[in-house]
Design a protein that fits this description.
This protein starts with a helix and ends with a helix. The protein is an all-alpha fold. Helices cover about 80% and strands about 0% of the residues.
Length: about 160
């Protein structure tokens, strides 16, 4: 029997290497492999922690928020496109099994089960899209250190006046 820490570490490393596998498949430059792996693993860990207390769709939303937030920060820091981190980082959250079982139940004639699995997969996909939209709608300047330094200096100047 595994402890909670071992379970989290196992999930982290599986998501980390799985995300790196997708990064390799999509020809991401080698220097970004570790960042891609970390992005996907962090999103998956948030999903795993949230799914104990919420539905798969809500958990996927929070996982997607983390993936896109980390992707935005890495984009500014490493000066590269956001898709490098976001596309490979989202893969652990994609409801592949839900889509597979939807098709399986359709083929075997179990329409009620197919509808249930299909709706669940659509909910998860929609939650991922919402997570992406929420973070991508934040202006790029928000993720740059100059923005915060300028705001801090304006805040200090207003307090002194």
């Amino acid at each position: 029997m595994m402890s909670a820490v071992q379970d989290i570490l196992l999930n982290f490393f599986c998501a980390f290497f799985g995300t790196i596998g997708f990064a390799v498949m999509f020809n991401v430059p080698k220097r970004f492999y570790i960042s891609c792996g970390t992005t996907g693993a962090m999103g998956w860990i948030v999903y795993c922690l949230a799914v104990e207390h919420a539905s798969a769709a809500v958990s996927s939303f929070f996982g997607a928020l983390v993936v896109v937030l980390i992707s935005r920060m890495l984009t500014v820091r490493l000066k590269c496109p956001i898709t490098i981190f976001m596309i490979s980082g989202i893969f652990p959250l994609v409801p592949g099994a839900g889509v597979y079982y939807t098709a399986y139940y359709l083929v075997t004639g179990q329409l009620g089960e197919a509808a249930q699995r299909g709706i669940g997969a659509v909910k998860v996909a929609f939650a991922i899209v919402l997570g992406i939209v929420f973070i991508v709608s934040i202006p790029r300047e928000f993720f740059q250190p100059r923005y915060w330094k300028k705001r801090w200096s304006l805040h200090k100047a207003s307090k002194e006046a």
